[in-house]
Amino acid sequence: MKEANKEARRWFLQAEDDFRFVEWVKNQSIFFDKGCFIAQQSGEKALKACLYAHGARHVFGHSLFEMAQRLSQVADEFQSIMDEARRLDRFYIPTRYPNGLPGGSPFQIYRAEDLGGAYVDVQKIIDICRGYLEKHEALPFQ
Q1: Residues 6+ apart with CB under 8 A from 123
Q2: Domain count, the chain
Q3: Residues 25-80: pLDDT tens digits?
Q4: How far is Cα 91 from Cα 118, in angstroms, rounded to an integer?
Q5: Would the N or C end of the chain have less CB density within 10 A of its end CB?
Q6: 131 in a domain, yes or no?
Q7: DSSP per residue, 61-81
Q8: 90 lies in which domain range?
Q9: Mapping DSSP to helix (H, G, I), strand (E, B) and coil, where does residue 114 land?
Q10: Quick one: which of 40, 33, 20 has its CA closest to 88?
């Protein structure tokens, strides 16, 4: 269990650091496409931290929705972030690649309101994950 919690802490620390970057970008009102992608990444890392804390040895994949579904089988609180996970999953590819969109490039398409929504969604995921990790003694950091 110690190793699982150590790995969970590593992933969650990175998720929080990514979240701080999203907050900074949002406050700068720039790089909306990149901020949306990092919001997705922050949520992904937070959910992976919970899966590691639950005992997963390897966590593959990038879908927040699928990870939240998996976690909801063992903890009811993850049911409350399904919509947020769905919305953030939409930022995984189209925010990075021009061919992920029907026209234009990501930097031309994404706006402040997209990043604002992504920020709110990932903040809720981070909060749920933090609570889960604290309850399972993977946090506080030691």
Answers
A1: 19
A2: 1
A3: 999 999 999 999 999 999 999 999 999 999 888 899 999 999 999 999 999 999 99
A4: 9
A5: C
A6: yes
A7: ---HHHHHHHHHTT-GGGGGG
A8: 2-135
A9: helix
A10: 40
